[in-house]
Amino acid sequence: MSDCLSDEVVALMLDGRLSDAARADAERHLTHCASCRGLIAGAARVTEDDVSQNDAAAGADPSLPLPRGAIVGRYVCLNPIAAGGMGVLYAAYDPELDRKVAVKLLRTDFNRSDTAPLMTRMLREAKAMARLSHPNVVAVHDVGTVRDEVFIAMEFVAGSTLSDWLSAKPRPWREILDAFIDAGRGLAAAHEVGIVHRDFKPDNVLVGYDGRVRVTDFGLAHSLDANASRVETTVVSGAPSTLATDVSGTGLLIGTPKFMAPEQMEQGSVDARTDVFSFCVSLFEALYGEPPYGGESLEAIQSAIRMGQIREGAPGRAVPTWLRRALVRGLSADPARRFSSMTALLDAFDWQGRMERRRIGIGVGALALAISGLIAFWPKMSETKICQGAAEKIESVWGAKRAEAARHAFVATALPFAEDFWRRTESALDAYTKAWADMRTEACVATRVRREQSESLLDLRIACLDARLRDFDALVEIFSRADAKVVEKSIEVARSIADLRVCADTETLKRGRPILLPGLRAKIDAFDTTMAPIRALLKLGKFREALPRATAAIPEATALRHAPTLAKAYQLLGEAHYAGDAAKEAVRAFQEALWAAESAGDERQKISAAIFLVYVTGYGQRNPDRAEEWARFASAVLARIGRNDEVEAWLVGARAAVHDLRGRYAELLRDRERAVALFERAVSRNDLRTAEAIDALGYALRRAGRSAEAARHHEEAAGIYERLLHPDHPAVGRALYNLGFALAKNGYARQALASFERALEISRKIQGSDRGEGAWRIAGTAHARTLLGEFEKAEALSTRALALAEESYGRDHARVAWFHMVHAAALRERGAFARALGHLDHALRMQEPVFGRDHPGIAWTLTEIAILHREMGDPRKALVTLERALAIAEKRVGAESLTAADVLAEMSATHVSMRRLDEAEANAQRAITIRARLLDADHPDLSRAFVHLARARLAKGDRRGALTHLSRALASEEKRLGRSHPVAVATRNEIQRVEVALRGAGAR
Amino acid sequence: MGKPLTTLFLSHIPNACDATGFTRLEPVLARIVAEARRAWPDVSLDAAVFVAHLASQCPRDAEIPAHLQSIAAADLYLACACANGDVAAHRAFDRAYLSRLPTLVRRLNLSKTLLDDVTQTLREKLLLARDGTPPKIAGFSGRGSLLAWLRVAAVRAAIDECRARPGLDPALVESVDETAIAGTDPELGFVRKRYGAEFQAAFRDAINALTSRQQTILRLYFLESLTVENLGRMYNVDKSTVSRWLHSTREELLATTKVRLQERLRLSNAEVGSLVRVLKSRLDLSIASALKPS
């Protein structure tokens, strides 16, 4: 019995943070340990408490932080960063865009009539902030309510607050002023869109490790207009220490008295000039080391403000007179006497600052210095405007109107999950627009404000983002006339475009830097606008619509005489042909794309064309030799340009497809494992690309006989698809279908059946018929029913699957072969040997020309044929067939492989019927050895091998030996398949017969 | 050198840790230390001691950069300071964690005295070294929050306390109401009376034929009354997926039970059918009772 679970394991398990292996261990322990189960149950119950504490508006302890992993909106909380009077700030993770964010949870109470309107305003203003994109404002990504709480998801800023920055060490006045000017720009930008901060202070300004200054927590403080008098008493009755703290009246923050303008304190009325006052208080204290107005109580301070008694400041602080003058004006009690706006105040600083510099410059007698001072200072005046406008630009593409049109189109398809899919698609598109705007602002700031990157690099990044916008536009256009096919693919495509990293990858952007003739750039961009819809159509699987457009684009692209563009056009044409199964045309197009990319020196494009060529020549033309050459070519190019995990992952995946075609399962497994690892590193485990690779790895594991691991991988892939897409998404169906085979192979027929049926249910929901995918899934259920011993049902199902497959693909298509085999297996169990053999022969005739005569799949078909020959009384023919199968298995999969063991087991049975008993025993032993090594102890295939051995012993006259092996088989079969399973029943009968014979022999 | 924290850190990680990608560790470590200190300004703990502790708690199979990204730094810092016997840390732990125990475990409905005992036991076990073994809090690794860890420890302590006092608060240990299972449904009563033993046996067989995951989920759902949300969180899947699991497992149970019953009772298909209909309407109760340790 394993050890009991530690506290840590229990905590992590409840949080869903155990690795798969650790969880499986824990589960095994839990099946037999009631006390650990009790512990889990108790801990889960108390945990549930604080996950759901959001809805316990009253009674919940607001000081209790959310646990790690708690979900707020679409965000996953990581850890609390800070807590204040109005709520708690958490570091959180945004799975949608795979980034770290900060989430502020505001503890509020919507139900109270006095605060509800304020809450509503707060929410409205926070939403307005979300539309504001400014380098000196902490970007608000998302605002929403979760039950009774408002949450605000913001940019995560690694750094400190301005107050920490100020107290870290003494700084010269110029440095302090510069930081405040930046913060002031953020305030001014907010004022422009009608938002007043209401609680500006150094604690609400962040200084990032990147040196950027950002203002946060806009509009969160509110004065209670209706209860002004009450506010005052609350504040005044406070001890002096409350002056610096957040005063919380009714769960709402009112502001921080020390920094509050008199009109805010007294009437609760605020405008931009209120922020000017708070700003000046903050700056004054930062420069002079003490607040401008002294006093032990709020009343004293208020009176000092009214009297205009501004302190002189601590001695030893050199602050220029012009700066003090500006501050004194900003600190006027009467708003009308202050600067009329933040911009006016900043202009005063700027102007004064320039004068200051000029004086210094002329003072040292160098005019050049003065000019450089001017130049150095100039960009700061206009930068605020330069880096704005990103949000408006993308809103012109993705506005409310187009969203509504798309939603209508989705709903009009009348698919049962259309609404659901739409909601998820919409949220992915929303996230994308936000990310796009943020990145565009960031690119601008990096050049114009931080001066970390050159103007030309900014151009490249903007061009890259503009290209993404064209694609986005084309996609939205298709969504607005969506049909069933588009809806089906919508979520994954919407999510796949979200990856904007390519536009942040400055190295690659620089490498692809084009040198263009004048005027060409505009032409190329215009042409790209016609290509964007083709890309979108292909992504959404509408290749028929894409093909004529892609064909028409070639002459246009040729006329541009710009090789990189031509390469892209040919690439699209190739993809359209490939999707339409026109392999020959596809090969030609991809080769053209390759040559064009070669003359353009575009190595990535070359790899991309080569990877497609692997698939087209491999799967499309069934020419693994060619496919392998293309794979090696792509590897060589990649090796030259340097490693890139994602590109390499695609490439390794393509190479794996070649191994699969050739039936080289060891290599297949190795490459699939590598592809998963690469995707995981390039993106994350929880990603659609990785999920696809994991699913493919499951297939490879099953091929390698490791079906238990295979099942785990398919299950994991299905889980990722469910999470990222939708439980009814076709991708979930595919993974569950694969899971069915892994489970069946592992002897879990009942679970396999459930998995196939669920997969069938999904494909029915989506297609409304059983053609195509549905046929495979029905065949899957037939396979499972055969394993369950429900042969009548299996025959009916496999007949239907075969008919559907022939209807979908045509009678002689290679894909139909497999349906014949499933049908034959059911027929054989029903005793219809001749009919079964007919189907198998037919299958073999279809497979050999396509797979080649020595593909491992052929070994399987041959084995099935041999069984029928034996059952029909022709063991000699059976043996010849099996010898051919064994040769293939040993050569192509390995002498110690499961494929070989399958053949050996049947050989043993055939030898028995030919009375070649030593060989029969030896082959059964070999099958046992191989299967015991690769399968678990109760695996039905291993039990079968023991039955074969028993029969060989029995034929030799060793009844007791036979009985031992049969009992061994029966015990496993009963355990795994159940007592009433036909296989177990047959074994039991066999045991009875041997026992009867033994007793008879004993009596004699 | 210039990278004192990195050097210190690397010299304390367990051998099996993957120490690749540690070139930019210094700012990360500095930030962790700073973050932790900001969280507990009163606690004085030498950065070197903390970084060594941080390193020694690195799980064997972890990639260090990713591990450090997700570490609950402030929690680990406090735990380390507590383990080192820092008085301020003990006070902080008392204030921020132990004093919250009543709220944390209020769902367990412990009596005041029991709660006091549990708190006292925990304080001793977690904070005091005994017979040369370090205090239990030294074993907190920082994966997951200290709060979650403490909660589990508290629940364990509460269960232990209950076990130690016979007759006390049995609801905590066994949370299924027996009378609900016996029920008053006449049809079910008939079936139980007529086929009770065979039925139980068939059902138990069917349950044993499930995978260990299926069994675990069934047990936690029916016997320990965890919700689908709880389970979804444990398995990182949507609660609808959990429902689907439960549904298919139930179907499987029914089908297997049917076969087993037929086998045992040699009933006709129709008879078994009607039995199964009764069973289906009461399946949840049957599952809960069959899962109970006999």
Layout of helices and strands, plus pairs?
The complex is a heterodimer of chains A (about 1000) and B (about 290).
Chain A: H1 7-14, H2 20-32, H3 34-51, E1 71-72, E2 75-84, E3 87-94, E4 99-106, H4 116-131, E5 140-146, E6 149-155, E7 159-161, H5 162-168, H6 173-192, E8 205-208, E9 213-215, H7 228-236, H8 262-266, H9 272-288, H10 298-307, H11 321-330, H12 342-363, H13 367-377, H14 379-386, H15 390-395, H16 400-412, H17 418-448, H18 455-479, H19 484-496, H20 506-511, H21 520-539, H22 543-560, H23 563-579, H24 583-600, H25 603-620, H26 624-641, H27 645-662, H28 665-682, H29 688-703, H30 707-724, H31 730-745, H32 749-767, H33 773-788, H34 791-809, H35 816-829, H36 833-851, H37 856-871, H38 875-892, H39 898-913, H40 917-934, H41 940-955, H42 959-976, H43 982-1003
Antiparallel strand pairs in A: 1-2, 2-3, 3-4, 4-6, 5-6, 7-8, 8-9
Helix pairs in contact in A: 6-9, 6-12, 9-11, 11-12, 12-13, 16-17, 16-18, 17-18, 17-19, 18-21, 21-22, 21-23, 22-23, 23-24, 23-25, 24-25, 25-26, 25-27, 26-27, 27-28, 28-29, 29-30, 29-31, 30-31, 31-32, 31-33, 32-33, 33-34, 33-35, 34-35, 35-36, 36-37, 37-38, 37-39, 38-39, 39-40, 39-41, 40-41, 41-42, 42-43
Chain B: H1 4-12, H2 25-39, H3 47-56, H4 64-70, H5 73-83, H6 87-96, H7 101-104, H8 112-127, H9 146-164, H10 170-173, H11 178-182, H12 186-208, H13 212-223, H14 228-235, H15 239-265, H16 269-281, H17 283-291
Task: Report what the structure shows.
The complex is a heterodimer of chains A (1004) and B (294). With 1004 residues, chain A is mainly alpha-helical. In chain A, 67% of the residues lie in helices and 5% in strands. Chain A has 43 helices and 9 strands. In chain A, strands 1-2-3-4-6-5 form a 6-stranded antiparallel sheet. Chain A has a 3-stranded antiparallel sheet with strand order 7-8-9. In chain A, a hairpin with a 4-residue loop joins strand 8 (205-208) and strand 9. In chain A, helix 24 (583-600) runs antiparallel to helix 25 (603-620), helix 37 packs parallel to helix 39 and helix 42 (959-976) runs antiparallel to helix 43 (982-1003). The longest helix of chain A is centred in the middle third of the chain and has 31 residues, at 418-448. The relative contact order of chain A is 0.03. By secondary structure, chain B is an all-alpha fold. Chain B has 2 domains: 4-164, no CATH class; 178-291, no CATH class. At the A-B interface, helix 1, helix 2, helix 3, helix 30 and helix 32 of A face helix 9, helix 13, helix 14 and helix 15 of B.
